[in-house]
Design a protein that fits this description.
The protein has 317 residues and is of the alpha/beta class. It folds into two domains: 120 residues, 3-Layer(aba) Sandwich (Rossmann fold), CATH 3.40.50.720; 176 residues, NAD(P)-binding Rossmann-like Domain (Rossmann fold), CATH 3.40.50. The chain is 37% helix and 15% strand. A seven-stranded parallel sheet has the order 8-7-6-9-10-11-12, with helices on both faces. The protein is globular.
Length: 317
């Protein structure tokens, strides 16, 4: 058996259990020698002769899937999101796709909250100023008493809501499959998107990227937000129109922006680069020791289950 593992974090020391299981089942292991999310021929070259593909955040388009070797019998996502996998093409080819739901929920939630705090108090800029020998006075905002709007009340959104309540925040949430029982038990108020964007002081995005959500935060929606609102995205690049967000930062409409996901990754060019009150992290939300270990083990188990003809609870299609 031969497998291609494209996620570079899979081979971190904390993933020892997953690596051991991988080498017990597979005779050959191909790795991502480029160290970045892969595209097109970069994927296909490394998949030759492989039975399984344990995929990071590569761009697994319809063209890539159609050209995959016949030997590939499973695409096992090392992570939750499958927006970069053309599921329709995978279905046509009869290639099962799996993911690792819940494995990184706490990790992503905690990064979202860290970005909220950092944006509210302008921490990166203050750190740099002190490092450079300055001693500035900066007026931030408190989260207590503010309203947090959570777009996507799934596993990550729910964890974020609980932490926000502990910080004495009011919580609004939107989700097309709203969990009314959770909301009632934890004092979370359901809201449609327009209401959420107009009434929140901080907005955090936790939805997949698809045709319906692409640029859901555009010029019009930003204009409807409260002056000085903070916007956080630890989900997927493309949810926010970066050009519109840049203009809102420059005008002062947005009080802060924390991004862990970008329209272009790795980030090279963006109208947001170099702007004040903007915080970048390198799509690292899922990268904690605990999450890496869980994702690694789940992704290998999922691939083995499919190849062995066993039931897989994490099969997307």
């Amino acid at each position: 058996m031969k497998v291609f593992v494209s996620s570079t974090s899979f081979f971190q020391p904390q993933n020892a259990a997953a690596q051991k299981l991988l080498h017990q089942y597979f005779d050959q292991v191909v790795t991502n020698d480029l160290g970045v999310p892969l595209k097109g021929e970069q994927i296909l070259q490394r998949l030759q002769g492989c039975d399984a593909y344990i995929a990071g955040v590569d761009y697994i388009t319809a063209d890539v899937i159609e050209a995959m070797p016949a030997s590939v019998r499973v695409i096992s996502r090392y992570g939750v999101g499958v927006d970069r996998v053309d599921l329709a093409a995978a279905k046509r080819r009869g290639i099962p796709v799996t993911n690792t739901p819940g494995a990184n929920s706490t990790a992503v939630c905690e990064l979202a909250f860290a970005l909220m705090l950092a944006a509210a108090r302008n921490l990166p800029q203050l750190h740099q100023a002190v490092t450079d020998g300055a001693w500035p006075r900066s007026e931030g905002v408190e989260l207590a008493g503010k309203t947090l709007g959570i777009v996507g009340l799934g596993a990550i959104g729910k964890r974020l809501a609980l932490r926000a309540k502990a910080f004495e925040m009011q919580v609004l949430a939107y989700d097309p499959y709203f969990d009314t029982a959770f909301a009632a038990a934890n004092d979370v108020t359901a809201a449609d998107l327009d209401t959420l964007f107009t009434q929140s002081d901080v907005i955090s995005l936790h939805v997949p990227l698809n045709d319906a959500t692409r640029h859901m935060v555009d010029k019009t929606r930003i204009a409807a937000m409260r002056d000085g609102a903070i916007l956080i995205n630890t989900a997927r690049g493309g949810l926010i129109d970066e050009a519109a967000a840049a203009q809102a930062i420059l005008s002062g409409k947005l009080g802060g922006l924390g991004l862990d996901a970008f329209e272009q990754e790795p980030l090279k060019d963006s109208p947001l680069k170099g702007l004040p009150r903007v915080i970048f992290t390198p799509h690292t939300g899922a990268h904690t020791r605990e999450a890496v270990a869980q994702m690694g083990l789940m992704s290998v188990k999922n691939a083995i289950a499919i190849l062995s003809g066993e039931p897989c609870a994490c099969q997307v299609l």
